[in-house]
Amino acid sequence: MNLFLSAIRLALSAIARNKMRATLTVLGILIGVTAVVMVTALAGGASESVGNQIDSFGSNLIFINPENVQQSGVRGKVTGRLTEADARAIAREAVSVSDVAPWLSTMGQVVYGDKNVQTSFGGTTRAYFPIRRFKIGRGELWSESDESMKTKVCVLGQTVAEKLFGTGDPIGRTVRIGRAPFRVIGVLEPKGTSAFGDDQDDRVLMPIGSFRARVMHTAPERTDMLMASSTSELTTARAQAEITSLLRQRHRIAEGKDADFKVNTQAEFRQAQEAITRVLSALLLAVAGVSLVVGGIGVMNIMLVSVAERTREIGIRLSIGARERDILVQFLIEAVALSMVGGVLGILLGSAATIGLGRALGWNAVPSVDSIFVATATSAFIGVAFGFLPARRAASLDPIEALRQE
Predict the structure, then answer these.
(1) Are 94 and 260 in contact (CB under 8 A)?
(2) Which one, of 359, 362, 56, 101, lies nearest residue 191 by Cα?
(3) In 3D, which of 195, 58, 189 has the Cα closest to residue 136?
(4) Rg for the chain (alpha carbons), in Å?
(5) What pLDDT shows up at residue 72?
(6) Which of 74, 143, 180, 269 is least enclosed, having the fewest CB within 10 Å?
(7) pLDDT at position 1, please?
């Protein structure tokens, strides 16, 4: 114990004698540790934020898209086909599916008075709203009879409603889409930006029959995509299998042949997002690690300079009875002290910067206990790893040769 206490006292006095050098050495470690703390915390916050956006996109979502299929012996591709009849069959026969809705979309202009707004138009059914967790903020949703009669009614997103009507009430007003007049019966609750970067409030929704008849003509019952929702998060994989089996049967696709559709789930998007986040986090941590290595090299250089400058002091200590391990421990503690000071300051600075940046971005970015522990342990390891060579060199000096140094 006396050995360590004496070594700590000597190490701290040596650091105090060279304040500028010690400050510059600490700065290298500080930058590296700050980078590690920020990268770890911000990566977690970003992953959670994007994950929440994906979860808010819908309820246990399943996407069914048409797929181009290469026929054997034929150069051309056959385009997949999905219909409203497919949607009805899934809703009727897939027991793990709670809702399914067809979807058609296009871009266009909606006109009210002298205002003209470019937006996204969607044609679908009532089932789309619980699937995508859209709610009516004002007014009401169209009825089943509106769908069967292809009534010219629509629901506006909040962004479109504000652009066309400002602070006025759009319910009951008539807007023009293409050449057809549509009566506004509802306004959606604000939903914000999706995980894919689009404004979910910048849209106009209407019954799919009205959309096909007056906005974008397609083949009867043809859809761009089907959206479904499983009965629970646990039944999503089973619902995916049921939909795949049912559509292969309906589309007469033989066993072993490529399907003319593709079924993806919300969980798969979440997994892909997490995998991308892990890769990016690893790359950023590697960059932060380089900063720590550079800081460690700085510690080694300063310690080597310190050994060279204090050669005579080391010789005197050795000649009056100090052992090699006494010298080794003294210089190791000096290196660890420099690294730990840089580590603690880096943790404080990194935590403050992370919390501030997280609030600015709207993320829940808070340094974890694990990341702080890793940063502290890394700082100590750098002190030992990069301080050992200078310390070993100091301990192995010949006392007689050391005393000859001026």
Answers:
(1) no
(2) 56
(3) 189
(4) 34
(5) 56
(6) 74
(7) 56
